[in-house]
């Protein structure tokens, strides 16, 4: 409990090191009992606790809090005409000192960890967070993420792996992902589109090539969209054939919420105090 209170205090007050945590708390020693501390706070004791005690008790407690928060935001408007839950999968890199964190492999002269996050767009609440060395490729996390049926998952093209996407399809879940320029596809059918809203093409396609077809044997939907604000053409692949093409583009656009989450995570010092 003392360890939890120390680290919670560090997060809420933006402490930058173990020494900073202990010094601030001991400066108000008469108040510690009322905060719930049961004993004396020492830097060495806190360091030993962080190194030796199993982190999973806090991880499990975090998931309990996430479940409570998700229920509070279940009626929040998404801005999308959907009955499904929408999740954004992405990662961010946190730079570390190589001499202090040699296990956090990233580059020859640089260490880093990568925080892989599945964010529930409704409420901007993370439902899955996994930390790896920075050298771990994003696509590998698709084997770990707990995908759920009747949900939509939107991802950048770093996650474009057709075998893993087909696994999502078999779970009766949906994905919206950006296509790569070298993805070989054969058009089967073209639907009519309203170019006035930015949709340039809405097609049913099949993958070309034996390896790709074996990985994803079913048909896919390709939506080409022009983002007028950035003057940029985007191509999306999805296994959902029922939603309007514009909604597919809007689902991908909702990914900006995970970028805001990462910005908040870094700017508010949560990661900094954790690394300390």
Commentary on this structure:
Helix content is 35%, strand content 28%. With 276 residues, the protein is α+β, with helices and mostly antiparallel strands. Strand 9 and strand 10 form a beta hairpin.
Label this structure with key terms.
single chain, 276 residues, alpha+beta, 10 helices
Helix content: 25-40%
Low-confidence stretches: 271-276
Category from helices, strands and their pairing: alpha+beta
Report the sheet with the most strands, covering strand number, pairing sense and barrel closure: 10 strands, mixed
Number of E-type strands:
10
| SSE string | HHHHHEEEEEHEEEHEEHHH
Based on CA atoms alone, the radius of gyration comes out at 23 Å
Strand content: 25-35%
| Global shape | elongated
Mean pLDDT: 89
Task: Quote the distance from N terminus to C terminus.
Answer: 20 Å
Q: What's the helix count?
A: 10
Helix and strand arrangement:
Blueprint: H1 2-13, H2 18-26, H3 29-35, H4 43-52, H5 56-72, E1 85-96, E2 105-107, E3 110-120, E4 125-133, E5 151-155, H6 162-170, E6 174-178, E7 185-191, E8 199-207, H7 210-215, E9 220-227, E10 232-238, H8 245-253, H9 256-267, H10 270-275
Parallel strand pairs: 1-5, 5-6
Antiparallel strand pairs: 1-3, 2-3, 3-4, 6-10, 7-8, 8-9, 9-10
Task: Summarize the entry for a quick read.
It is built from ten helices and ten strands. The protein is an alpha+beta fold and 276 residues long.
